[in-house]
Write a structure and sequence with these properties.
Strand order of the largest sheet: 1-2-3
Mean pLDDT: 91
Largest sheet: 3 strands, antiparallel
Helix content: 40-55%
Number of helices: 10
Radius of gyration: 18 Å
Shape: globular
């Protein structure tokens, strides 16, 4: 008889908040441990890229690498301002709202790239038609997956508690896990991440009760 039940879904490897803080603290050490300037620059870009992914939930590569500064916009609700990002991915086009932490990441990136603008707001206002994730020379990085894997090994964070290897996609899963833990409903999260409610339920439904133990008790 054929087994039509399919493979059992397992929680995808992600980072806890403590592990993220450990990773961020390791960035400066990792970035200095190089023999060539180019390698150091790639590591600086990779660090910014990691923080961007974990604070937006954007898919690595297909959605993130084509992003241009002109895809960033301000979204106003009353007198409050939020960063809105236009994304085109495998599920079509969408706008998402980034976490506020992304603002500092992008500000730091534009100054590191030595873009001739005073602030992120100025870049957004002029709709700069230039890719975001490049080296100061304008060169696109190659094999970020390998660079990330090296970082994971050096930082001691390659494997999660279940022995699964973390990849750049683990940052997207981290975003989803944190969003659910903070009380974001799965319908909103599905639209934000450009996926289906079914996929959110399939991969995260087992852990949401534990995340919300205080609310449920």
């Amino acid at each position: 008889m054929l087994n039509i039940a399919g493979a059992k879904s397992e929680p995808r490897p992600a980072f806890s908040q403590e592990e993220l803080e450990q990773l961020y603290a390791f960035f400066p050490i990792w970035q200095k441990d190089v023999h060539h300037r180019h390698s150091g620059e790639v590591r600086v870009l990779c660090a910014a890229y990691i923080q961007f992914l974990v604070n937006t939930g954007i898919r690595h590569s297909t959605e993130s690498m084509p992003l241009r500064w002109k895809h960033l916009q301000w979204h106003f609700i009353g007198d409050k301002r939020y960063l809105r990002i236009w994304v085109s991915g495998k599920t079509g086009q969408r706008n998402l709202i980034a976490k506020n932490a992304v603002l500092d990441v992008l500000e730091g990136l534009m100054h590191w790239q030595k873009l001739p603008y005073a602030s992120l707001g100025e870049i957004i206002d002029i709709k700069l038609d230039k890719k975001i994730f490049t080296l100061p020379t304008g060169e696109m990085p190659h094999l970020l997956e390998n660079i990330f894997r090296h970082l994971m090994k050096k930082s001691g964070l390659l494997k999660n508690g279940a022995g699964q290897n973390r990849t750049l996609y683990s940052l997207r899963h981290t975003y989803a896990t944190q969003a659910l833990a903070s009380g974001v409903d799965i319908h909103t999260l599905a639209k934000q991440m450009g996926t289906s409610v079914l996929m959110i339920e399939r991969h995260y439904s087992k852990i949401t009760p534990m995340m919300n133990a205080e609310k449920l008790a």
